[in-house]
Amino acid sequence: MTCSLVWLRDDLRVADNPALVAAVERGEPVVVVFILDEVSPGIRPLGGATKWWLHHSLTALRDKLHRLGGELILRQGAAPDIIRTLIRETGATALYWNRRYGKPERDMDASIKDYAKASGLEAHSFQANLLFEPWTVRTGSGTPYTVFTPFWKSCINRPTPPRLPAPTPESITSPATLPDSDDLDNWNLLPTNPNWALAFPVRWTVGENGAHAALERFFASRIDRYAKGRDFPAEYSTSELSPHLRWGEISPFQIWHATDDFRRDHGNSAEFSTNAAKFLAELGWREFSYHLLYHWPDLATVNFDARFNHFPWGEPDPEILEAWQQGRTGIPMVDAGMRELWQTGYMHNRVRMIAASFLIKNLLIDWRVGEAWFWDTLVDADPASNAASWQWVAGSGADAAPYFRVFNPVLQADKFDPKREYLHRYLGEYEHPMLSGYPEPIVDLLESRNRALEAFKTLADDPRSIAPPTIDL
User: Fold this and answer.
1) The domain spanning residue 19 has which CATH number?
2) Whole-model pTM over 0.70
3) pLDDT by residue (tens digit) across 145-165?
4) Which parts are annotated binding residues for FAD?
């Protein structure tokens, strides 16, 4: 018995899955595998919140595959070794996957493809998770883009739009004998002692069905106000698709064409076009982040702007850092955001910028400390967007203008939460701070701002002027 082997990674869906389609169309039985690899060199271990999401996403995917006649094989360990083992166990004659863009992942995929071809297997990778492959988007001089606006203009002005989503297979044929599979529960992806994700299911419906329900909800009740409403954290104005995109439960091609179809069906008014263009530009920021990660693989650990290698970040005081992590800084907008993060695994994007700016600039703590905390606590912790966005707020990233910007969390609350609805939602003690023991501010905002500006004077005076939109899909 021979078969086609489909290796899924961050593409946990059956619709618009080119690797799965190719395997089914080949005509042989199909074995679908997901490998939890946190041991291969350079592979970053998952954070706690993304592990929670992954558990439920794999459960949903397994059910989807069962309905089509397929099975999901789970293995844990070094992916190259497991793929070689599965090829021998299944008699696979073809290996298919959808591309990844981090350098350790690309190097791994290239070595496995070489092994497969040398072993006589048909081996193919597919474009499934980005609208525009990073190596295909270049400036007029042939270099990678480092500014968002021209990058996105170059993408959307191409003569042909992104491809249509691939069809969902009508059925999947499994081999008569399947290889052994791990028990998902034995991976211990879910928190237990304590179960800090207890409230996550209230906020999220994980899986491919949940992703499409979120997109439909966005079109039904949110997109008409998106361009303005996305800045107000008390409003439910964003699509909340980012964790679904993180694990590929929905593809950017599906989002792009669904938005285009919705725009066409609703008359393509100027107001709707503005909202739709803004929404797609947020998808563009994700594309830009992966463009950066592809060309600058150390985006999560190395300052994009080398001047910041000498920026005087201090050694973080454990008590101060813990106050920020737990939402006990005494700065309401920061604390509300950090508590939203802890309770839901998510934080509204504008509040992410405020909380990040406070850590980096008011507390003078290295952006990498904050990036690592978000990596562990966000359900949408994405290797490209998380790093690019933290560097952007820090001023060390691409297109980070002006790099010396310091968000004032009080003014931000006045402007974007004027009725204090968001603050009341996550700060139960906010209404009566003197009675509830709400903490005093851990720093003086004006004094710490001035200290940050003095620190920026150690850098060359080269402010960049065009700021990209920030992802809040």
Assistant:
1) 3.40.50.620
2) yes
3) 999 999 999 999 999 999 999
4) 226, 238-242, 279, 380-382
